[in-house]
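Chain X:
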Amino acid sequence: MDIQEVSLRLARADLKRITFSCPRKEAGMDAEQVWKKMVIRPVFIKNQTMFQAEHFTRKQAFQRNYMPEELSGLIKDMLENRFLELNASWPGCSVLVKISKKGKIYYKESPEPVADTELSLSQNREKRYRIQQQDILEPLMDLGVVTKDGKIVASRYDKFRQIDRFVALIDDEIDPNQETIRIIDFGCGKSYLSFVLYGYLTRVRGLHVLMTGLDLKADVIKKCNETAEKYGYADLHFEVGDIAMYHPETAPDMVISLHACDTATDYALYNAISWNTKQIFAVPCCQHEVNAQLTKRAAGSLSEYGILKERFSALLTDACRADLLRSEGYHVDVVEFVDMAHSPKNIMLRASKIVSRNTGRMAALQAKERVETAMRTYQVKPLLYTMLYPEQAGAETMDATEDRP
């Protein structure tokens, strides 16, 4: 099958949408000329069905309407000169087309009847989900969250919302003028969120993403690399390694740490700060360190009730982490990652590096002082503080000891 035949097959009257992605970047082409994405959809103008093509450059969006008989020629032109991939959909059917660097065409048509137990993404656009029907990502299909034509499986609706929330939180913080982004995912595990994020950023946002996942389990990492190869995610790699000992060849623009247990989150944050990472997204888990340090004298009634002590320790740990990020020149938000009804571990620390260290200098000093006050009050010593300020950590420990009767 060649591009001409593909174009004729796709130019159907009942077409719902075509999304072109993976832009071709020819030698000598200015960055402003590269089309990041193109979407074709039917429109009804003056009692006639036409097809509206909207393409996006780095800073602008352009629209043009085409007659039905012009559709196949437009598709052919886009595949030959602008893009290497497209997703097309019709009622009950979808097509994925990929063109390799050697010009080989991969064509996959997936008929899928609409079941009563499925919800259409397009029918829920009022909810403003970041992942829409045109963004049919293979990881979501493998997870059983969506069907091949982009319908959300009703029993997996909560999982889809969590994934979409994760993508949106990260997408909102990316510089719209950024073309290439390096990401490290610490404690990646099975990496289903890494796969979804990589697919979204490359195929929907049109970014060049260089992403590395790190985990201690060799069998899990082997499986992740095999999956990345299956999806054709060329610049998504996974390595076996310890967060505390990891040193990348090139510093990342973004660090992600989701549910890294206990102090592994602290090592992830410390590494990100040391590398002057622009964006940090951390969802802490199992904060045992401060819990073990809290004494009855310092915690009072909280120490009498295990569940209250555990929750207080987690909140105190994350509050200190947020302020320590601020003390190092980051703007920090503490946001709800998923609804509390679905997971008690629902706090995300979202941090962005402030361009100028002079901006917010006083706020940074105050944030550090708040941590030190909490350390003296509750007689604890968070690991992240000891790594960032090792000399002062010793003094704070002595002060806390002297305060005790």
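Chain Y:
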Amino acid sequence: MAEIKTQKTTASVTAFLEAVEDEGKRKDAQELLKIFEEVSKEKPAMWGGSIIGFGQYHYKSERSKQEGDWPLTGFSPRKQNLTIYIMSGFGDQKKLLEKLGKHKVSGGSCLYIKHLSDINVDVLKELIKASLKYMKEKYKV
């Protein structure tokens, strides 16, 4: 069985964020860091080279033999978008998503936004809280 490529590292979250080239994206990412720390009550950690994760759970795939550890929630300042990982998915979050503002979702757990100013940050906090609650209950974290 292949080992999952994205793993928790000891790399500096601060150094990673300071290296984000686009100034607007860097400022938004630094604000997201504060939001995620506040909501999750977890310390941030780098996962792979580009994901800032909060908390951790162990999963076992129902469709394959793959298993591993993954952050409970997190984000990544990607070139195109700020990618926010809502690990519980969006199945029960339609009403919150309608209030969020300009965004896209895909992959079951990825929320894409261009700028924090495009969304209602309080709604984002509610999405993160709901996802964390679900993940902690499901995975007994």
